[in-house]
Structures are given as structure tokens and as C-alpha cells.
User: Fold these one by one.
Assistant:
Number 1:
Amino acid sequence: MSPIVQISRASLAFGPRTLWSGLDLDVEPGEFLAILGPNGSGKTSLLKVLLGLQPLSAGTWSVRSDRPVGYVPQQRAMQEALTLRGVDLVGLGLDGHRWGTGVRGLRERKRRVAEAIEAVGAGSYAKSPVGRLSGGEQQRLRVAQALVGEPDVLLCDEPLLSLDLAHQRAVSALIDARRRQAGTAVLFVTHELNPILSYVDRVLYLVDGRFRIGEPDDVMTSKTLSELYRTRIEVLRVGGQIHVAGAQIALCEDEPHHLDERVS
Amino acid sequence: MDKFFDFELTGQLLNLDFVQKALLAAAILALVAGLIGPLIVMRRMAFAVHGTSELAFTGAAGALLLGLGIEAGALAGAVIAALLLGLLGGRESDRDSVIGVILSFGLGLGVLFLWFYPGRAANKFGLLIGQAVTVDSTNLSVFAWAAAGVVVVLAVIYRPLLFASVDLAVAKARGVPVATLTVVFTVLVGVTTALGVRTVGSLLVLALLVTPAAAASRVATSPLVVTALSVLFAEIAAVGGIVLSLAPGAPSSAFVTGFAFVIYLGCRLIAFLRDRTGNRAEKDTRPSPREHDTTLVG
């Protein structure tokens, strides 16, 4: 099988600051790749490169798919008074980028939107104003919005943020089911590996321009993480979960933020 | 006061040709304003619309001075304003101040133009508060063509524009040209504003561009329903306002804005009553909607 996402000898720098360089990454169809690392290590920027929103400083990248890439953005609160329902939000994921009125094919559109909403279990609030839904409810609709276009590549930026444990499991399982059924490649930026550990094929761990790519068992070790962080890190496995202890622990940060994101 | 309810006089006036033209112009304006209004409300552009309409006034005043048609002048002023706002106010943080700066300068310039203008004072005042009954056949055809242009462009860009308005990050990720759409939309707003100068006046264009949509947003959530209600409210305000102003011979814009305001208050009341009964029914069955209101610092 040939890779659907290819990144070779890629580097990304903002002024004097190099986020990462010499990055080679191939992602196969159906593969589940977790992208981990502390804030500012360039996780979100990597997704932006693959969305075509951020040019590389050096190297090349390609996504080989005719269909638009699915994208679950980092959770942010929507305006409470926004006149938009869940069905409208999901519908925009299907054809929001198209010109024209789209009057033809409305029945098919309605069916696909309803299916996507049913699949994430958002049916009971899909007709409510999105601005009045909880963070978890909005996030389920976001996943439906990303999946409704049946993408070959799904990019997720902290999709589990602000979800409680049950919803974290539900959303992760949903994304996993999608890649198993349809062979969608998943690139999943997260600061919390455990909810998705059973699904993850490989991990890309970014720290201060250094990185490791490999299976979770190879990357998530005291030795590898200590090398990446250049300080002593202990990785403990407790009951099928991975816990990282050390001086600057990325996995315990609760407030992800973007250094490079501005609304224009 | 009894003139207000002189339906016989109103009926007679409605048969007059210039009154019918005024009503037709108002109906066309209300259609376009009602269509574009919900997007203005979603994009929080009410102040930008006000700034654009002040520049439409400047353009119209300049045209009056030069002896050109005020439609053309208003159109030029509004489109220049729209482009300036698009170019200078790109960053959300300084958009408001840029509008304030351009608005006040443009208004001052307009006042100067009017001072130079030797003609009738009523024409000058009319630019600010509207003179619906001065619409003639030439204006009307310009009007209709401009309105048709706005509607067609809006139909073509509607979905990506809505996407960019409500969901910027994902729209960008989908390849929607959000910056270009912002400029195109501002120009559409400029054209619509210019259309309003003769009918309701540059000071009061907001009554048709923002108030009906703001009212509709209170009582509906689906973008389609909000747009339909917004058009309906704008038509009631514009046509109803002019018809009511006929018998007393009062300025029509006072009635247009009054109608729009009453509709807005009514919609707020409906929303308030509905929320209260809704909350009572749903109490304790749902968590509070804002438990994760985290502000992400950029």
C-alpha cells in the first residue's frame, strides 16, 4: 500500500525559531497516528501544513486524495447568539466550500447530514442553536462535520478537549471505526494519549525541534522521552495506561494554545 | 393627528405614479437588505454598515454638488468606503477604530460638499433622512439592476460566505477564500447601502439592513428561516412605513424605522417568553451550557 500522506525532509521555522526540521513522515491509508508534544512544539502547525494553510520552510508534502481532508479544529466556544443549528454546521462540512445555491441534491444532502449526526449520537440536539450547546455536544457535531464528507484523511486538533471520559471514549471509538471501515488515515494531535492508546498505530512525538516516530511501545519509554526532553523523564505503565513524570511534562498540560494562530 | 388615519387620502395617494415608484423602490431595497442582513448580524458588522452609509452620503453630496445623479455618487462613496474598510480594518482588533476614523472624516467631507452646494436645502437634508417620493423611472431601473446584481452575487457566494462567517477555522481549512469573500461581501453591503440613501436616507439605512435581521435572529435559528423572516420584516417596515407616512405627509423614514423597531421589540418579547417557559421545562435535565467557556489566548 502506498502512503496517502507524505512529508519529506520538511522543516518549519518562524523567524529564528525552528519548530522542527528534517521531518520524514509517511502515513498509510487506515493508519492512526498520534501527534504529541509540549505547547509550541509545532503540532498544530503540522496540521496546518497538511491543510495547505502554512507553507513549509523547506521540504515537500503531499496528500493524495480527491476528496477534501476532514478537519476537527481545536475547540473554541461559539457565539451564544449565533443563528446556526447543528444540522447547519454539519451541512457546511459537506458542501460549505461550494459556490452556487446547491438547490439540487437537497434530499441526498439531508440524508447524509442526518447519518453523520446519528453516527455521533447528536440527534437529540442537532436542531438546537449550536452556541447554546455544551463544549462536548459541540465537539461531537465537529466530528460529524469532519466525517460527513467521507474524507480519506482526517486531521484532528485536540478533539477530546472539554469532553468527559464517556464522551472521550465515544468520540475516539467513532474515529477509529471510520478508519477501519473506510481506510481513512487519522492524524490526531493530542496532549492526552491514554484515551486513544488502544487505537494508535504510531506516535510522532515533537519536543523543541527534536522528534521521534514509532509505535507507542517504542516511543513512550523513559529512555526515548528523556532524550527528547534532555532531562530525566519517567514513563510508568499502570493498568494499560501510560503515565509520564518529569520536569516539563507535556502530557499534563490542560490548556493548549496556539502561538501562531490569529484570526484575520 | 387625524390625518394619520385618513385612509381615503392614503388610497388616493396610492394611485399616484410617483408614490407607486417610491413603494416599488422601497420593496426592492427591503428585499436586498433583508437577504444581506442576517450575514451582517452574524459577522457583527453593524458599525461597518453605518460607516459605509456615511460614506455613501459623502458620495451623494459630492454628486449633488457636481450635478451628477446621487445614486451614482452614493454607490461610488459606499464602494470606496467598503474597500477602505476591507483594506485598513483587516485585523479584528482595530476594525472598530478604523471605521470610526473613516466615518467621521467622510461625514465631515459631506458636510463641506453640502455647504458648497447652492441648491435647495430640502435636497441636502434628503440625503441624510431619505426622500422616497423623489424616485423616478431612471433611478428605478438603476435601482433594479443594482439590486439584481447583489442578489445574483449573493446566491453564488452564499454557502462559502456563511461558512466563513460562522466557522472561520474550518472554512479556511476547506480552502474557502475567506479574505476575498470579506472584500466581496463588503462591496455588496456598500451597494445595498447606496440603494438606501434615496429611500430611507444614509443615517437610517441601518433600520433596514440590521434591525429586521436582528429581530429575526431572536426568534429563529435556521439560517434559511432567519433570512426569510428578515426579508419579511424589512418589507413590512419599508412598504408599511411609506404607506403610513403618505396621509400626514410626514418623512417616511420616521415610519420605516419605527416599524422596524416595533418588530424588533416584539421579537425580543417572543424570545424572552419562549426562553422562560423553555427553561422551566428543561430545568435540571441539562447541564449549564457554558461549563467549558475557556478563552484560548492567541
Note: The radius of gyration of chain B is 20 Å.
Number 2:
Amino acid sequence: MGRKLDEALAILNGLVGDHLVRTGNALATEMAFYLGGAPLRMSRESLSSAFERPTPRVVVFVHGVMCTEAIWCFPAAPDDHYGARLGRDLGFTPLYVRYNSGASIVENGARLARVLQTLVEAYPVALEELVLVGYSMGGLLVRRACRVAELEGLSWLTHVKRAFYVGTPHLGAPAERMGRAVSALLRKIDDPYTRLVSELSDLRSQGIRDLGDAHLHDPDAAPAFAPYSLREPQHPLPLLPSIRHHLIAGSLTADAMAWLFGDAVVPLSSASWKTTVANEALAADRVKVLPGLNHLVLAHHEDVYSQLKSWLEEPL
Amino acid sequence: MKDVQRWKGLRALIGDAIEHGASAIERVQIATAKRPFDVIEQIPGIAEPAKGIHQVHDVIVSSTYDAVRLVNRALGRAIDAALDAVSEPSEAAEQHDPNVSRGDGDPRP
């Protein structure tokens, strides 16, 4: 019951989470680390009691839109997930973030930066490395959190040497941009019914809207995208050069259509960050395209774990 | 306490949906009715009475949806009061550490 309720709340938060926050609704999820379906208190004592042997290397997982940390569980074995395996195979202590995915990515990224700072301050053993793994929207939160940490000089950023983005729409999601364009078109038609449909579609949360252009810019530098634009914006927020970034993209097919449809939610060009602008922080061998994987399974698939493990085994 | 807050949250969300839904349908109904009225109001001889009927129509529609919104808000306040009354006795007994609330056997990470 708890898990189903949490998943229902996650969907609700993803759909109208910004409205829930605005109206002070108790259904809004507050960002926190979760363990076994319950929020983890960020104190040295509670972290010591939550983990039998906390290790100096920590991996933090950030889920995507409309889901919880349960998305990382392998369906055949719910107590098996990337974090548990990385703990067993490479000695990482896994931590999972849960958040309101309907709030804006910029806000959630700033919250993630604060939550990571409290983690670093409360962690019971000296921290050697903090690895960040973001799935879908979670990857954009990771990028925004790194940006906030860089601007505010937060100490956790010094522990981050590697970041992983799984199915993350770095250049935005065309489905959302398409929806935005259709909604704007319907609003222009002088008919009460089409306007009603437009109003209904505009109820979607700010978090979902932000996915359209991967909106994680500094609030005072946000570019005004044209509402009808379907093109992928050239992203003004580059990857931090101090971190080794790794991208994993799924693709339903191995042919040219994959470029357009990608993993059925995020196009290959967006998940693998293929732009006309050279990205110095992203070496070609740190982008892995996994054919035959759709967006949902990227969070719990053997091939993805093998790739994560392989990258994490590389010397720093 | 958290459960009661969530029930109140759900109540508030349903209330918001009814409020916004009623307003949206009200706009559609008034805008839809405006089209034939606009035509009739151009016809000499019946234009003036048609304008009067149009105004009466709009007032009746708005009053109806105002009543829906009013009942919705009153019902919301009543449900909140009932939830508060139900939660008071159990509040004192509820003291738990979030770290201990982990469900036994919950396989989630």
C-alpha cells in the first residue's frame, strides 16, 4: 500500500507539483534522501544507524519525472538496484533522493544542492568521492545542482569527480515542445472548446514544461524561447569541466529513426548531447548508446549497470 | 498527523479542480451562447429584447456556477473541520522517528 501510494503521489507531484507547492498542499513531496520508503534524517547519528558500514565513497541517485526512488529497482528482484550492486561490487554507499518533480528544475536543482551539502556535513566518515547519477529529469537536476554549488562555493562539489546521466534530455524533450506548440495554436483559435483544451493542457506542471528546453538556466539569464519553436535550443549551461561526465542513452532501434525517437521519450541527439557546438567536457568515449532499451527500463537494466560499473572501475 | 494532512491536501486538490473546472465550463457556456445571441442581436425588431435575454442568460449561468463554487468551498471547510476533529485524539499518541518508520521487508532502496 505504501509503495503504491508513494507512486500515486509521485505521479500527482509530476503533473501538478508546482500548484501543490504554491497552495501549500501537504501532498507535495519535500526533497529528501529516502531509505526503504521513509525519509532519512540528515544527522551523523541517523546516518550511522541507517548504514551498517558507511563507506568513504557515496553514490547518489536522482530519479526522473513522476516517479520515486523505486524506479531504480529491478522488476524481477525489487531489493536489487544499481546502488545495492555498486555497494556490493565497488564498495559505494548508495543514497536515493526523492523530490517533487512538478516543481521547476531550477528550484529542484537548488534544493538538491542544499540537500547534498547537508549530506556531506552529516556523513559519518570522511568522504573521498561523491558520485551523482541522474535518470531523465534527475540528470538535469544534477547539472543545475552543480551549477548552484559552483556559484555558491558549496563544499560538496569538491568531492564530485564523476557524474552519470541516464536518459537525460540535455537538449530538451521534443514531445513537450510539440505539446506547447499545439496548445499555443489551440489558444489562438477563436473557439471556446479549443481554448478549453488548451487551458487543460496548460495545467501541466512547471517541471514538465522545463523538460521541453531542458530549462536549467540561471533565473536572471533565462532566454525567452518562442512558444512555437520545435528546434532544439543550443544549451547555454555547459557541463562543469572539473567533473568527468558520462552519458547513457537508450534507443528503440538501431536505424536512422533512433535519432528522432531515441528511447521513445528522449531523442538520441538530446540524451547523447549531440550539438553543433563542441563540448570539451564530454569525450566521445563517455557517451554510450544502448540499442533496444526504452526510456523506462534505463533505470533498471543489466546493460546500463554494466556500463556504469565499467566506468566507475576506471581510475580517477 | 501526516495522513490527516494528506487527506486535507487531497480535499484541497479536489476543491481546486472543482473551482477551476466550474470556472472553465462557465466561460465555455457563456462564450458558446454568445454566438447565436450575437446573430439574433443584429436582427432589427428583436435586437433589444434579445440583448436583455442574453444578459439574463449570462447572469443565470454565472449564478449557477457561483453556487457550485460556494458549496464547494463550504463543503471543503466542513471536511477540514471534520478531519481536524478526528485527528486531535490521535495526535498525542503519534510520536515516531522517520528513521524507525522503515517498513520491515520493504525492498525499496
Note: Chain B has a mean pLDDT of 86.
Number 3:
Amino acid sequence: MSRAHAESIDIRSLTKRYGSFAALDAVDLDIAGGEFLTLLGPSGSGKTTLLMVLAGFVRPTSGAVKVGGQDLTRVPPHKRNFGMVFQNYALFPHMSVFDNIAYPLKLRGLGREAIRGKVEESLRLVQLEHLAERGVHQLSGGQRQRIALARAVVFEPRVLLMDEPLSALDKKLREQMQIEIRHLHEELGITTVYVTHDQREALTMSDRIAVINDGRVIQVAEPAALYNRPADAFVADFIGESSMLEVTANGAGYSFQGRPVVAVAAGDGRAPSSGFLVVRPEKLELFDATMAADHNRFDGLIEEVVYQGETLFARIRLDEGPHLTLRRTTGREATRAIGAAGGRIALALHHEDSVVVPERRA
Amino acid sequence: MSVAADLGAGRAAAATVDATTAGLRRDDRRERTGFLGLSGPALFLLTIVVFLPVGWLFWLSLIEGGELSLAHYARIADATHFRIFWTTFEISVVVTSLALLLGYPVAYLMSQLPTRWANVCLIFVLIPFWTSLLVRTYAWLVLLQRRGLVNSTLVDWGLIDAPLRLVHNYTGVVIGMVHIMLPFMVLPLYAALRSVDRSYMTAASSLGASPVRAFWTVFFPLSLPGVFAGSLLVFILCLGFYVTPALLGGGRVMMVAMKIQQNAGIYFDWGAASALGVVLLVVTLGIFWVIGRLLPIERLFGAR
């Protein structure tokens, strides 16, 4: 399949109001050509509304959507030339697999031979060449998913939009499809906007992730940056596990219950005057004397140790009152080092891993 | 514990399992009998109101002067009766087609409205059901007659010079029947159209189909089960329709039901009436058998 010419997407102060409720509140977002960008947020956050505005199915109240520099805000969906994969796949039940994929090509007036060639190429791309003559109802969930994908890219769309396409699949298949979609994206090089509420899926697949809540983009960053340097408490809490310790500014640094804490700034580079220290359970280490120079130290009581297969999870009540969670891989050493519930423990968090975030990004 | 005791305990356990298995099988049987028992009243009713009368109909049609004979059938195998059957089927086809043409857009509109408004529309579709069939038919007679509302309006507006002949003929019968039949078309259509998932149209649109194109290539094919259901219902109702064609046809349009009424009510010739009923039933079943063979309906929509 020929490489699509990757086009950038510019979203400018996009707003969608339903009465007094703002589903999208002045959203600005630049998506680079060929990028895989994920819109991540809880249900009702506005991520699907944003995708539907991009696709042209929801008319925004104000703002603009440009693709490759061309203003598409008022262009109807069937003239946008965007590929779209739906949550329920929306394969036409009265057509065979072949006819489903041929549908967009027929609409574009391609000849019989050209259609056959492109459909076969597209089926090869998703490794389902042998299913061309099947009816849609004869396919498994994973196969439908791939056919929907093949149909969405067969006409070389300018942009590929995906609305939680994997949510109906079971966990194993979902993880396998995440990698496959990622590979397909690399092969086609098409600008892709992907919607999900699954933070792990977003981290696995994306070049960048835009975290959305209450109709606003909270933070846009690469997966590692998003995880390690969240912009506010919402992002820190929504992505991955974390314990939040309330801290206050103290001169150049912060203090936690009167004890000084050394921390780095949040994802947007600004140091809030007060906020939360984000403690990722797997970044905590067992304290030893050599760490004193570049680690923050926390002392507490082990309340509970839970064995979860590949990892071990411990709940620790700090002497200052709040709780921390600690997660270690279940090597023989790690298990012994932590000790049992009821014992005391000293934990260390590297200064680089100590991020202070405001409760809400201004 | 000794080996013998072990064996004894094992045997006892096996006996218990056997007893339970037998019990489960009994439960299965009882459940089946229960289902049969529940459908009993319906079967009984069907026997009383369908099988016995139809059987009696067949029997009567074969009796002439107290003896078994095919005389009734021989008598209706002529041009007059052929024309009556032809008229009946022709009117049924025309009325069904018109009801479909008029009913589809209504059902489509209703299927796209929010449930609240769809229900309001549904009430409007159903209102005619609450009015007597006879009243509605006479209303058409009033509207369509020579000096009726329709003709006088058209003349007043200067659209026509002389009143149109709208009633006591084929036209009147078709107009009246289409009106009566519309709800029977709209209701099954609406149910079918409502069940077509909207995401199919959205998908078609995202793939580049204009709204009109998306309708004809995706929505309409998916609504065909409803089209068949509605058409079948209306067609069958048309075949046996009596009141409206009798009143609006003014004696010029003769359908099978009217001939049956004539034979039974005027000539007291139950045999002839029965024979007509049997022929109508057989021809109708024949037509559906042929349609069923020609249209691969199951294959069209895929077995679910």
C-alpha cells in the first residue's frame, strides 16, 4: 500500500456547547503529520466529542479544524476523506467482507480491477486474505476489528480516526491488536487520532497522549514524559498508580508535614506554591545510608503485603499519617527485604522522581 | 477401613448417583410436559377457530346436492371468475405498493426522531384505528363524490373544469384501501427501521457516501425485512378486504370477498362460497411459495 502523505491537524479554540454544558471548552491541539496521538480521558470527558467534531459528525459551536492547512470545520463528513474505525466496527451486515472493503472504493468510482487489487492489498495488510468472501456475521470479534481497519485505510484517507476500537475485545486479543495497530501505523505513516479511556493502551500505542478532562486538554506529552512528569494531580492519578502526599512550598523546596522534601517541577515546568508529591509505587526503593544525598526518605509501618504474581504490593502507613503504596517485582531478594506486615520500613524516593503537582492545572 | 467396607461405600455412592441421574431425567420430562401443557390452550383455540372452520370450508366446497363432487370448482373455472381473481390480486398489488411508497417515508421519519417525538407520531398513525372502518369509508365517499370536498375545491381553484370521477370505481377503491392499510404498513416498517443501527449510516458517511447514497446502499437494504413484513401483511389483508371496496367500488369493482358474500348471503350457496375461499387460499399460498423460491431472503440478510 502506498504511503499516505502525512498531513498535520490544527485544532483552534474548539468549543462545543450543549445548552450551558461545554462538552469541549476552547480546545487547542496541534497534531503533527504522521503522528499517532491518543485522546485519553475518563468517560464524559469530551474525548469522543472531540473525535466526532474532527470526523464532522458533530458541529462545533465555535473554533476551527484544519488539516494540512485546509479549513475543514464546515466540510460535511463524507467529503473529508478521513478513515474511521468505530467502537462496534459498524461493518455492513448485508455485505461480504470484500464488499465492505470495496465500498469506499466504489463510491470513488474506481474500476473493477483496481478495486479488486486494492481490497486484496488491504486484506493482506491485516492478514485476512482468506476471508474475502465471508459474511460479516461469520467473523470473530478480532477479525471484525481488522476488517474495519482494512476498510478505514483502503481508500488512503488523509487522517485515521479510531473511537475505542479495542474496547469490545478480551484482554489478550486487545494487547495483541494494540501492537498490530501500532505496526500498521508505522507501515502507513498516516496521521492517527485514537480515543481511549484505557491509560495502559494509550501508553503502549501513542507517540503523544492528550489527557482530556471536563472538555479541556490538561496535558499533551509523550508517554514517558506524561507518566514521569504529570502536569497536575488529575493526570498523575489517572495515569498509572500513585500515592499523593500533600506538600507546601518552603523556600526553594517543599515540606511534607514539616519535613523538607526535595522535588522537581511538574510537567509544565512551573513549581506550584502548594500541591501534591506524586509517589509512584515502583519508584520507591528501600533506604540505605548511601542514598541520603539524593533521595527523600520516608519511614513507616508495613500494614499489608499482597502477593500479586509478578509483583508484590505493600501498603505502608507513614509516621506522619498518610499512606504510601510500594510495588516490587517478586524476586526472592525483594520479598525478603520488604519483610512482613507489622514491621518497620524505610523508603527512599530519588529527587528526580519526586514530582510536585498542583491540584488542578491553572 | 477394610477393602470390603470401601467397596460397599463405593457401591452405595454409585447407587445414589444413579438415583439422582434418573431423577434429573424425570425432571427433564416433566419440564417438557409442562411446556406442552402451557401451549395446550393455544392449540385448542387454533383447532376451534382455524383448523375446524378451514376443514369445514374444504368439505362444503366438495359437496353438491348432498354428494361429493367438484361441480363448484368447475363452475368457477370461467372468464368471469378469472377476472374477479385478477382484479383482487391487481388491486392488492397496487394498494400494497402505494401503501409502501407512502408509508416508508413516514416510518423513516419516525425512526430518526427522538423516542419522545416518535411516540407522538405513532399516536397519529394509530388514531385511525380508533375510528370505525365503516365511518372512515363513508368519510371517503363524502370527500370523493361528484360534489364532494375534493372535486369542488379542485374546480374552485380552476385546476379542473368538470368534477373527476373519484369514487364508485377502481380509483375510489384504491384510495380508500390505501388509507385503511397505511397503519398496517407503517407499524412493522417502523419497528424494522428503528432497529437499523445508526452507526452504519455514520460509517457509510465516513467512507465517503453522500446522505442519499448512504441511504440507498446501506439503510434501505438493511430495512428490507421490514419492507417484506409490512407488504406481506397489507397484501394479505387486501386479498380478503370486503367493506371498503364494496362501498367505494359502487358495484363496478368486484373482488373475491364480495363474490363470496354474494354467494353466501344472497344465493345461500355455501358450496360456491367455500370453493371461492379455498381457491383464494390456495392461489395465495402458491404465490408466496413462488416468491419464497425466487427471493433468497435468508441469504440476503445473513443468518444471525
Note: The longest helix of chain B spans residues 3-61.
